[in-house]
């Protein structure tokens, strides 16, 4: 609520309350929406989604910032922004696309009620690397970024906040793989950023990655392998000395991405409890859990695995300061292959950042590489509502028809066909059963179903084409799961919490 609205509603009392809130915002640096990494939000959000939360439906406006992703000239796949409107009314969207040379172009569209639309940044402006700022005339809108590579897809939420710190638990520069960190500054203030990396050999701070200047509206793309070479596992910490940025990570596995692609928004804070709602180790493949401790103190970590038959003996490790632990889950005899299970990672200190990396041939002879969605555990959570976007099954029709400012309306049933059906995976971290309502909109038709999730268990809802909206009686871990036709591997779809 704005200060003016507070004054109108509450009169004098509202004026004093608004002034007090304004003073608090100034003291916390709230004008830039910066996430304070030393005081991470205690909510049940994905680590990436700690800075990706859809504003309430009654908001006058909201913003999203999409980390730089490859354009066609980067030969890393096609990038598309997927927008979902959870509100029962249409909203106007103004997208500003930025390239690495500092050029900007604007594109406008109208997003219908309960609709999904796709926007291809490279059809708005030509460039090797492109970032975006999305301004919405309202709330209840989420923005997700899809990188569609030759051998797989990767989906990550855009950021609704900028932050001074970002963490990535996994990455690789081995066997021809390429790892890039992208920095986007959507603020009017200059940012100066340091990058540090943790490998099996310890922590390293290459001089070219110290004091990286990211000017207002600028984006920088850093190739990690130029200075951190031939490392099978790399954890990354991005720290801004001044200002704030949005950080993303693009991983191409194998020469020129021949083995897969993973693109993710960083985690702006550590977490003491993380869940992986749906995990399965493929026969003939490999998978590993990576736990990153970016803090300056030791951290004890417990990894609890629950099979359909019940829990197994947990894995325990003490991580030293600025270190990472790789647990090869596919090699553990207590975890069965080809059987769905859940993972919960609990830290007993400041917190950690968690990722799961999988590689193998579950659907054919071609290799694949992917990262699973990790959900921060229920910690006095109020995250009961979620928005999940359905990635397209085939290349979408262009949402932007020219490089000039235009206006269009799109829904998932017309210009943007999705999968015929896909799944929503729900995990209940509570001791009691949980009631969850899953609603999807295929075209103009509403499809609703109620799912009962047992205590410490999971359930799956199969939904028709289009975005899905999840509402639970209490905190619930949510992710989407889709295996697009013609793609190798499984796509984990991060859910975006709706305030």
Please give the radius of gyration in angstroms.
21 Å
Largest sheet: 6 strands, antiparallel
**Unreliable stretches covering 5 or more consecutive residues:** 1-49, 362-370, 376-382, 394-418, 484-489
Strand content: over 45%
DSSP E strands, number: 39
Describe this structure in words.
This protein is mainly beta. It has a domain at about 5-30. The protein has 1 helix and 39 strands. It has one helix at about 5-25, and strands spanning about 35, 60-70, 80-85, 90-100, 105-110, 115-120, 130-135, 140-150, 155, 160-165, 165-170, 180-185, 190-200, 200-205, 210-215, 220-225, 235-240, 245-255, 260-265, 275-280, 285-295, 300-305, 310, 315-320, 325, 340-345, 355-360, 370, 375, 385-390, 410, 420-425, 435-440, 445-455, 460-465, 470, 475-480, 490-495, 495. The strands form 9 sheets. Strands 20, 22, 23, 24, 26 and 29 form a 6-stranded antiparallel sheet that branches. It has a 5-stranded mixed sheet with strand order 2-7-4-5-31, with no helix packed on it. Strand 33 and strand 34 form a beta hairpin. The longest helix has 25 residues, at about 5-25. The chain is globular.
Topology:
Elements: H1 3-27, E1 34-35, E2 62-70, E3 78-85, E4 91-99, E5 104-111, E6 116-119, E7 129-136, E8 141-148, E9 153-157, E10 162-163, E11 165-168, E12 178-184, E13 191-199, E14 202-204, E15 212-214, E16 219-223, E17 235-242, E18 246-253, E19 260-265, E20 273-279, E21 286-293, E22 299-307, E23 310-311, E24 315-319, E25 323-327, E26 341-347, E27 353-360, E28 368-371, E29 375-376, E30 385-388, E31 409-410, E32 421-427, E33 434-442, E34 445-453, E35 458-464, E36 468-472, E37 477-482, E38 491-494, E39 496-497
Parallel strand pairs: 1-10, 5-31
Antiparallel strand pairs: 2-7, 3-6, 3-8, 4-5, 4-7, 8-9, 11-17, 12-16, 12-18, 13-14, 13-15, 13-17, 18-19, 20-26, 20-29, 21-25, 21-27, 22-23, 22-24, 22-26, 27-28, 30-36, 30-39, 32-35, 32-37, 33-34, 33-36, 37-38
């Amino acid at each position: 609520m704005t200060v003016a609205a507070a004054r109108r509603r509450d009169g004098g009392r509202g004026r004093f309350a608004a002034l007090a809130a304004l003073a608090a915002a100034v003291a916390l640096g709230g004008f830039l929406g910066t996430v304070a990494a030393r005081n991470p939000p205690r909510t049940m959000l994905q680590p990436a989604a700690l800075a990706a939360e859809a504003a309430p439906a009654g908001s006058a406006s909201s913003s999203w910032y999409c980390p730089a992703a490859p354009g066609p000239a980067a030969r890393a796949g096609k990038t598309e922004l997927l927008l979902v409107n959870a509100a029962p009314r249409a909203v106007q969207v103004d997208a500003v696309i930025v390239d690495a040379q500092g050029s900007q172009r604007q594109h406008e569209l109208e997003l219908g009620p309960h609709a999904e639309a796709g926007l291809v940044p490279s059809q708005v402006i030509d460039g090797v690397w492109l970032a975006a700022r999305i301004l919405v005339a309202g709330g209840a809108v989420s923005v997700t970024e899809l990188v569609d590579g030759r051998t797989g897809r990767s989906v990550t939420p855009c950021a609704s906040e900028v932050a001074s710190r970002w963490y990535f638990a996994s990455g690789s520069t081995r066997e021809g793989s390429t790892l890039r960190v992208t920095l986007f500054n959507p603020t009017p203030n200059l940012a100066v950023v340091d990058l540090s990396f943790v490998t099996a050999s310890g922590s390293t701070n290459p001089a070219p990655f110290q004091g990286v200047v990211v000017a207002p509206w600028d984006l920088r793309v850093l190739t990690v392998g130029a200075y951190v070479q031939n490392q099978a596992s790399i954890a990354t910490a991005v720290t801004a000395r001044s200002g704030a940025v949005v950080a993303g990570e693009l991983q191409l596995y194998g020469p020129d991405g021949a083995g897969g692609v993973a693109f993710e928004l960083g985690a702006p804070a550590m977490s003491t409890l993380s869940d992986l709602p749906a995990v399965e180790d493929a026969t003939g493949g490999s998978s590993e859990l990576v736990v990153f401790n970016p803090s300056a103190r030791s951290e004890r970590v417990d990894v609890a695995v629950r099979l359909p038959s019940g829990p197994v003996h947990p894995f325990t490790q003490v991580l030293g300061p600025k270190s990472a632990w790789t647990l090869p889950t596919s090699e553990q005899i207590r975890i069965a292959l080809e059987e769905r299970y859940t993972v919960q990672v609990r830290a007993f200190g400041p917190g950690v950042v968690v990722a799961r990396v999988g590689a193998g041939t579950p659907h054919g002879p071609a290799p694949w590489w992917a990262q699973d969605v990790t959900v921060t555990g229920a910690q006095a959570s109020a995250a009961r509502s979620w928005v999940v976007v359905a990635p397209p099954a085939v290349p979408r029709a262009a949402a932007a028809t020219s490089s000039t400012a235009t206006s269009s309306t799109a829904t998932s049933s017309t210009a943007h066909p999705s999968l015929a059906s896909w799944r929503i995976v729900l995990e209940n971290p509570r001791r009691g059963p949980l009631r969850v309502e899953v609603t999807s909109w295929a075209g103009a038709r509403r499809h609703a179903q109620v799912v009962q999730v047992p205590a410490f268990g999971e359930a799956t809802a199969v939904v028709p084409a289009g975005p899905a909206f999840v509402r639970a009686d209490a905190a619930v871990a949510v992710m989407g799961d889709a295996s697009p036709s013609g793609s190798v591997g499984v796509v984990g779809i991060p859910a975006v919490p709706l305030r």
